[in-house]
Each structure stands twice: as C-alpha cells, then as structure tokens.
Design a protein that fits this description.
4 copies of one chain form a homotetramer. In chain A, about 25% of the residues lie in helices and about 20% in strands. With about 375 residues, chain A is α+β, with helices and mostly antiparallel strands. The longest helix of chain A is centred in the C-terminal third of the chain and has 21 residues. In chain A, helix 1 packs across helix 7. In chain A, the strands form 6 sheets. Chain A has a 5-stranded antiparallel sheet with strand order 1-2-3-7-4, with helices on one face. Chains C and D meet through strand 1, helix 2, helix 5, strand 10 and helix 6 of C and strand 1, helix 2, helix 5, strand 10 and helix 6 of D. Strand 10 of chain C pairs antiparallel with strand 10 of chain D.
Chain lengths: ~375, ~375, ~375, ~375
C-alpha cells in the first residue's frame, strides 16, 4: 500500500476497520507548535459516526491516544504518533465478501491485488474509518494554519435527490466561520431540503451522493511549486485519497471549460488589501501558485456503495452471477461526515507546502 | 520549483519558453525496452504548434535530441535525457509583464514568488511549451504500455461556445484507435461545430476552453495503491501539472454526486472476458485500484488566458489599475493540442504505477 | 525530524525514550508474506536490555503489539503497525539536561534545534531505545529475505581496550549461521577477551566502543541502482541512522585506500556456483550493484557517551563551564546490543532494494 | 537507475561516458541566487582530466552549457539544467567488455542487471566521467553556501604506497582556504612523496588508492534531522554515489571504536565564539545534527580498477577463465581528481539539508 503523504511533512496512516487500532504518524513538524487537544477532539467529533439520522449507528468515540511527539501541550520535534483503539471489532458479518464482492466497494480490487490475504472485515484498510487518523493529522495542521491566519472551511453544496443546492459562496470574501456543525450549509432552508433527500434515500434502503465545497482564506501569495508541485496537484493527491471522491475542480473548474477567455480571466485591481482580482475563477491559483485570493475547490462524493437493496454481484469461486444483500446498517449519505475530512486533507496539503516554501523572496 | 514526478520512474522537466532549450530526464526505466523514434515524433507532432487555424503561428519543430539512455533502439538502463532546442527565442515582447501581469497567467504569482528574478519571456517555465518534454516522456511510456496491450486515447469532448458535445464514449468498450488526428472526436459533425466555435472566438480576439476525455484500455486489475497512491491520486497529480487544467473527474465523476447508490454502483457480471461490470461509473477504479474495466477520466481546460481584447490589469510598481493589450498571437483554443498532453500524462502515471506494482499475487 | 526510510517500502519510526510508547509503521509490503511472531520475538530479545553485565539494568520486555497489517499469520497488504509500550517512563532524572548537555549526546544539538521544546528525558527521540522499532521492521524483513535464501548475520569484530579482534570472516563463504547469541563472535577466546575489556571499562565508570561486521549471503547479482541508489548508498543511509555509528566501510573499505589496483581488483573465475571472484575486496558490490558474492561491511560504534566519571560540560543559561556527573546506570558498551540492530538495518535496506528491482532482465 | 538525489532540491544526473552528452538538472533552488560561471569553471577545472602525470590523457574541456534556470547571472527559480557535450565519443575499444568484464569495474554487474542492453563504452553511465555533472551541481551549491559563510574544503590525506600521510587537520579550526590546487595537501613534502607513489604505480602499469579528508566550516548548529535524515546519512548517500568510494567515517570515525567514552566524548567549553568543544571526535555531528563545530569526514577511494597489467577475467559466453589486458590509458590514481568531487557531493548534501531546515527555532 502507499498510505503515506507529504513532501516535507511525512504522514503515514495505518489500520483496518475491524483491527485492534487505527492511527497515524506525522513526521517533520517543527518543535514548539501549540496543540489544543480539546479543539482537536471537537474537530474529530464532526466526523464521528452515530450521532444523527444519516450516519451509521456504529458508535466509536474516535478519541485519539497520543503516543509520541507532544509534550506539555507543544510539539517536541519528534514524530507525532496517535492511535484510536477500535472497540467495535471483527465480527462474522464479512465472511462472504472475499467471494461475493459488494458493488462499488474495493472488495473485488482488494481480492485481485492481495490475493485473498487482505483484511476484508468492514472494508479493512479501505474503510472510511481510516479518515479518522487523517482527521487527527489534518486537525493539527488546521490549528497551526489558524495560528498563521489561514482558515479552512468546507460545507455541503448539494445532495443527490435534493432539488436545491446551497447558496453560492462569495469567492472574493468567503465567510469561513459560518461553516461547521454537523450539516454545514449557508442556506438553512436548502440544508433542510438536502436532509430530506437523505432521509428519502434511507427509507428506500438506498444512499445519496453529493458535493462539498471548501474555501481557504488568509493564504499568502506564492505558495506552491510548478509543475507537479502546484497547489492543485498536491491537494488533488490527498483529496483523491479520501474514499468515494470521484471529482475535483478548482475555482470555476468545469465551468471554465464552457467559458471564453474574456469571461474566465480574473481582472486585477487594487484594493485596500493590496492587489486582488475582481472575480475568482482561478480559485486562488495561477500556474500552480497561490495568488492571495481565497482558494476554492469542490469535491464530488459518490453515494455510499453499501445499500440494503438487493444487488447483482458474482461469486468469484463459482464464476457466476449471484444476488447480494449487504448486511449491517451504513450511512445513507457520507457527505456530511466527509466535510471535516475534506478540510483535514486540505490542511495537510497546505501545511506541507508552507513547510517546503524555500523561496528567499529576495527582490530584484 | 518542483518539476519532478514519479515514485518509481523519476521524471525531471526543465526549460523556459524562450530559453536555449527545453528538455527532460526520465530515470528508472528498465533496460531493453524498444524505442520507436519515428512513432514518438508522430506523437509529438500532434502537440506541435502552428499547423492549423486554432494554434499559435509560432513554429517549432519539437524534434527532440536524445543525449542519453537509448542505444541502438533500446533503452540501456541509464537515465534517458532529451532536449529540444528553442529556435524562436527571447525577444523584447515580454518586458512589461513583470510590472503589468496578464490576467489568467502566472505572471503575478511568479513575480511574487520569484521576486522579479523569474524568466518572464513567454511565460518562462510556466509556458505551455513545457508540455513538449512531458510528451517526450509520455510518448515513450505510451509505447511501452502498448507493448503490454495497454492503449491510451483521448479526444475533445466539448468546446466553449459550441452547442454540441462529442458523442458519449462506450465506457465498457471504448474504441481507442479511432482517436488521433489534430482534432480527435467521435462525431465529426460535432467536431465541425466545435471548430466553428473556436474560429468565432478567434475572430473576436477571444479564446475558448473545453473538455477532454481520456480512456485507457487493457489495464490489468490490481494497479494502484491506497490510500494516497491510488490511481486517481497519481493521475491527478500529473494532470494538474498541465497548464490550464482546472477540473478532473473519474468515471461518472461529478454526475455521481447526483446519483443514488442503486444507480451508481456498477453491478458485477461474468462475461467471456471474465468478471466485468455492466456499467462503468467507477471509471475502472475502486478503492484507488484498477478493476480491469476501462479507465475513464475527463479534464476541464480553461480558455487560453492570452487574448487580444484589451483587459484590465494593474501596474505593480505604481499600484494602480492599468489597461493591458496582450501582444503576439496565441492559440485561440489549446484544447486540441492538449489532447496528446493528457495522453502523455496518463501514460507516465500509469507506467510509474506498473513499475511499482510489487504485489506478489500469491493466492490464499 | 525525518524518521522515515525507504524508496519502495516506507518505514516510519516514532517514540521517545520515556514517552508512552515507541513504534513503527511499515508500508508497501506485499500481501501474503508469512510472519513468525515467535521468531521475531527471539530476534528482538537479542537487542533487549538488562540481561547481562554490559547492558543497562533498565528492563523492558520489548514485546511489540501489532495494531495493523498482519492477519492470521500473514501480511494482509495494509501498512504494518506495531507499538511497544514503555513501562519505565519519565522520571525526574533528566531535568538538568536542557541546561547542562551531556558530552557525546544529542542534548546540545536538540536544545539548539528544538529550542527547549524537545523531550529530553532519556534522550527522547535520540535514545538508543528507538532501535527497538527498527528491529521490529528489520526482523520482519529478515524473515522475508530468509524465505528467498538471503541470510544476514553480524558479529562483534573488536572492542576498545581489548588487545584482540575476532578472527577474520571468510569473505568468499562466510558462515552466517554461526553468529547469534548475546555476544556473537567466531573466536570464543577473543570474545572472552573483549568481554573483559568491557568489564574493565565498567569498573572504572567508563565505556568502550567497538566494531561490528555484517555479512549477507544468497543475494542475487543485479540488486542496486547507480548512482545514488547503489547498495552502499542505501545501506549507509540507514546504518548512519543508528545512534553512535561513526564509520562504515564495504569490502576492503579503508584498506583498499592502501592498495594498488593489482591487489584490490577481485579476479573473476568460474566455479560450480557460476561466476565468482577469488577474493572479495569489493564486498560484493561493483558500481553500486551486487555481483553475487557475499555483501560485507563493517561499522564503527563509538563508546557509550553516558559514563559515570565526572565530565566537563557547560551551563547554557549561565554560559559557563560546569562539571557534570551523569546519573543512572547505562550500558558500558552498546556494541553487543547493536549487532542485531545492524542486521535489522541491513535487512530493511536490502528488502527495499529488492522490492524496487524493476529490471525486466530481458536478454539481448 | 536511480541517478537522482535530494529531499528538498532534486538533482538528476544523466549521460554515458561515450554518449553525445552528459548533464544534470537541479530543481528546487530558490530564485535570486547569484551564479559565478567563471568561478564554477575554475572549480570544474580541478576535476578535469588530462592535465598532469596522474590522470588520463583523454582531454575534455568539461565546459557546461546552461540550458535553463539561470538568467542574467541569477537563478530564476526554474530548474537549472546544464550539459557537457562529449567530444571524445564511442570507439571500438570497448566491444569486448560485455563478454569479458574488467575486474573491479561495473562491467559484470551491468551485464547481469541490464542484460546486455547497457552502454558498455567507457563504462557507460558508471564512468567516473559522470562526476562532472555532479561537480556542476556541487560547484553551484558551494557558491551559495559560501555566501552564507559556509566553506567546504577537501584534501588528499594519503596515497597507497606512500609511506607518509598528510599532516593532521586542526579539527577545531581547520584552514579551509589553504586547500585547492591539483594536488591539495597541507604538508607539501608529504604531497611530494605521494606523487612519487603514484608515479611508481604508473610505471608498473598499476594504480593506487587513497584517502580524502573533507572539512566544512561555518555550519550553524541545528542542521540535520534524526533518525534517517541525519547529516551522516545524507552525506553518506551521496558520497557513496561517487565511483570507487569504499569507506566513509565522520570525526574520529573508526578510531572512536578503539576509544573509551572518557576519551571520545568531546567536552564542552565556552569561548569567545560561544559554546564549543575542546576536541572534535564527533566531527561536528551529534544525534545526526550539526553542533556548530567543523564537520569533518574521511573517504576511502579504491585504486583505479583499470590497470595495464594483465589480469584474470572470464568469458561470460564461454564460461571459462580468460586473460584480459585493459587497453587505453587511464588515471593511475583518481584520488587527486576526486577531491573536488567530494567537495561537490558534500555541498549538495548540505545545501539540501539547509533548504529543508524548517525548524522554527522558537524558544521555550
């Protein structure tokens, strides 16, 4: 596997859904950074399951135990390591998955790649549960970025089956602090409609996808490295590490493919805050480098593959079609719980780039 | 800068638009792989400028000189190095860009990051011209993948301002060989309509964006490594290294965010070719790992930022708004020339993952 | 910090001497490899402290708890994670070290680098205790190499203050299985003499350095990558990660600097085992690549810096010279316990190179 | 191959001894650093062949052509690329080497690894000629380090067959500026004796090895990252990338293995320059991190394997012993020419570590 990320910091994530523990090591972090463990727990609670109508009733506290790297409330320069012990471990529910893969899950590809040796229980290392250690690392990075005046906030933009999307973000001056909560939206009416769409899917034994939008404010201009170390490249690598992500766009994104240059180019202007652009189709990135405008991107999340409706699968041993009913109860929509995960991933990528920003900023 | 890519192969790209030469080094390639230089040149010619109505009249032959790594038509195990000498080098056209940045270009971010020391001529290292060495590396990888039965083909899906898109690809059995040419589409009528949209933009001194779809067939199941070494992550990192890319989606992509699980999950079946899925919303990837179905992704390309219409910019030294007219002639639409670049990028990412595929495929 | 190693496998080590736990994550290992936990424990016991006259009386069981990556006795393809909980944790013994650094330790450099935020207790992350997780990873790699017929054995070559060195190894056919035990030597009389030298140092409140020689047999020819991925480079990087290592040489090493070419060049011959050399001054490596002869290298270990004799140090706050007596009891000689650590480091480096050996071995 | 180096900067080296060109790309260097091309040429001339009695009469000017990354005498932030065109290219001298490998060379290991596809002429990519691009990169890094007050100097310590070694370096205050020239030593009488030893070897158709000592002054304390990113680890990886290096030791090195702790520990003191140690057995490194004392290391160089005396080799095709006479003329001792290469390698490793030094140096 390759569950490591980072050019300057080194994040390593481990664990299987029903193994003894999941966890992470985060290396390369400077000494002397404050760590607010209560704040981190509050962040992790946004991702934790079992708290409302749309998430799995499996309850895990997701309370990390820090084994290394933090001393008296500050980073000590040594690698930071934390584990979350699984309480809800291996059961017999998953015995059949190696032969009869669940559609939309990694059961089949894991079987091919690991030849039957993989830990299939609960999806093993492919489980969405592995986003918990990602949130430990990302929650810490978020705190350190906030210290520099960099805020990261994401929200639900749309849910499959809902007729409305959330209100557009102000791309010039997005209001990060308004996000948060367990169903973060700008327009609460739209949010209500989206919740109903999730409930409707749940009642039918089905699930729903959705989109998440993330904005980062306070980023200085000059972060990112062309060609393959650009902000889009680095964020994309980690965002696509989140299970169920199938699309990612920055700024105007796919809409820019429908534009002419005269529409898409953001014109420069001078404001009290310095040089800015009057629109933000670039999403704050030109040539892979931040331009000082808010960084904006959107993520497409596919619907939870685990549904209780009967589905067509195959028996790998018998090489014949077989009906499958996925047992257990699962999130009818993971989009709300994925919101802090997207924030965490962005925080890790951005903090990594800031650590590696070796430009001297000499001036000619 | 960080113009290097790869976990197993190591690609390093260098050059500035108007410098003496551009080029690349490709390290980590096994010895004994055949190299078809004529085939490579034919591939590079698909990207070369100056051959039709929609590209810049700047003419460069883009004929690489190989300095190392190839002997008697085969890779020799040493790093492969190639350069393309620039004939059309530095002129006075770009003197003003450090003070008055072109909207939509990297002029401003480069000025901030490199403090005026950057090579601004022609966009310097940010120029689309740097995709030529990317195509050298990618063209070679494409040949080696073809030897294994893996075909990569991309085509134009839509152009801004055209009312039609190309016909949908058959996601189960895409016909890769039909692509190619300087305006690759499935439906020639749609292609004609798209060409007219480009011509309309050109006449108005404007430019047009568009979408490219890429399909890879013949990929064995089991390629890719979770979590951050998944196929989507690796392809995304390199695709976002192509200038002007603002969006990327795999399989059903953003559409999957509008689906329910019962629609989105690809059901398994048994065919004469083995296990397959009856739809391909996953784009051939589950859990970051190939499932043996065609790999399909789409890329959003923003319109060329260089337009001849007057635009609003700023003088960085005077800190005031200033009108800007971009001189020189530029591609009114880079989408057609970006098609082989997308293929090249995908080929590099896939060949890199195949080199690193260390699974033993023991069977339990 | 940068406590990560590996190009193909990814090893991440964490922990501080007196923190809650130390541990490691080992990513990139194929699925389906057998794991012999009893064999691993026996290997770890060779490093464990407190079992004889020359090691610290601090007793830790060094019994790893595996949190992930192993299922039913086999690797499952997911990252392997293990922790060792510290039982003998933080005390007040180390309060003074941030102001009055111990000579020969990292106290001073840690203070400069981490600004006082470092965990100074017991040396923190710089403690030799961190070689325990290195031995977990290395012990596993050793098992997997043994499955391929590759044996790794190290032994004590000399101890400071002893008038004798161990007998020379047969560089053509070293007898790996003879090593092992808690004081591995070929010549037991020499070993007895070395033990006495350690005891003499201990009695005087002093410590002793020494040399370790390591041999690897069964390595196929063709492993390693020039220029910076050569066998010497990769082994050197990890061996110098072991605390107290100050020198490393391969084959004839520093002796080859005293030779003429006609002496140093190993002549080729043909044997029943195929092509061999009649001497092994190269240590089994030519051009960074294994030649099929035994890999041989020697490591210089400096004497344990912690001695009970009074030493001259400084008070960093007062900027004046200050006498220091290091409290607690420490190994008078870490060389015996470093022997399995050297084996572990070599095993990790070699297994990493084998995983990355992408040559197709086509033949012209 | 893996001819790339660096964690923060990315160095990529390419070329074969008798190919069209050799060269390098150096990525990740900040913009705005001055480049003194005349100074660089003077540095490269120290390595260039054909200028005296102990080096090959093959004459190459080793004059790099810069293709990218430098503009108007300053780095521009884009990757730096340079090539040296080979004038003395492929001849028929090397046809036999694929079947009858030269003892001590990489001919055999290359044949095994690359299956006959390797470029055998002149050693191909394994040639010492590849240290020329290493010196381009290292010469640049040396200049940038000098700007920070960091000086790097190496000299010949001993030559095989000479009865004398050079005078010891003052490890507390080494006089770097005294080095340089084509046979750098402190004691000119010893140097004369060493030259005679080389001449004696040459006359007998033989070659001689030797040792090089390198010192770095002006290094701030706090550079380097434990465990595997320590100064010794990073320097070792690149130094072992230099052909013919078989040993490396830091500070007292192998001598420390013969010491007791009370001898080896460097005692701290307070001087007008701040905290120092009264001896420098650590070689300026404790726990992998610089302590502000001079960095000192020694390198063992084996004798040039190419000798004109007849040697025993084998025919790989016939599987029988065969006599070999190496044709052409070669350096009877490469140690003098390796001196600037060692400096270059050290400069690259150190500059890389300085770029990655992300410690905040907050103080508690």
């Amino acid at each position: 596997m390759s569950s490591t990320y980072g050019e300057n910091l080194k994040l390593s994530i481990f664990g299987q859904s029903h193994g003894p523990a999941i966890g992470m090591t985060l290396d390369g972090i400077p000494a002397g950074l404050p760590v607010d463990l209560d704040g981190l727990q509050a962040f992790l609670n946004r991702r934790a399951p079992g708290q409302n109508g749309w998430s799995t009733p499996r309850r895990e506290e997701d309370r990390p135990e820090f084994l290394a790297g933090i001393l008296d409330g500050y980073t000590c320069g040594a690698p930071i390591a934390a584990v979350i012990h699984n309480k809800n471990t291996r059961s017999g529910d998953y015995a059949n998955l190696k032969d009869c893969p669940r559609p939309g899950h990694a059961d089949y590809t894991a079987q091919i790649k690991y030849g039957g040796f993989q830990d299939a229980a609960g999806g093993g290392h492919f489980s969405g549960r592995l986003t918990a250690p990602l949130c430990i690392a990302g929650g810490l990075c978020k705190q350190w970025l906030a210290e520099m005046g960099i805020q990261i906030g994401a929200r639900i933009l749309s849910i499959a089956g809902s007729s409305v999307s959330d209100d557009p973000l102000d791309p010039i001056n997005p209001q990060i602090p308004d996000f948060g909560g367990d169903f973060p939206v700008i327009n609460q009416n739209a949010g209500q409609c989206m919740r109903q769409a999730i409930e409707a899917a749940r009642k039918e034994g089905d699930s729903a996808g959705g989109r998440i939008e993330c904005a980062v404010t306070g980023l200085p201009a000059g972060i990112g490295e062309p060609m393959f170390g650009g902000v889009e490249s680095r964020i994309a690598q980690i965002i696509y590490g989140i299970p169920a992500v199938k699309g990612l766009e920055f700024g105007a994104g796919f809409s820019s493919a429908c534009m002419r240059g005269s529409q898409c180019n953001d014109r420069y202007t001078v404001t009290e805050h310095g040089f800015q652009t009057t629109t933000n189709n670039s999403g704050g990135i030109l040539g892979g480098i931040t331009n000082g405008m808010p960084l904006v991107f959107r993520v497409a999340i596919k619907p939870t593959p685990s549904i209780s409706k009967p589905q067509q699968s195959v028996s790998l041993s018998k090489a014949e079609v077989q009906a499958l009913v996925v047992k257990g109860r699962h999130d009818p929509c993971i989009v709300p719980r994925a919101v802090p995960v997207v924030e965490a991933a962005a925080a890790i990528a951005i903090y990594d780039m800031i650590l590696g920003n070796t430009q001297t900023n000499r001036r000619k």
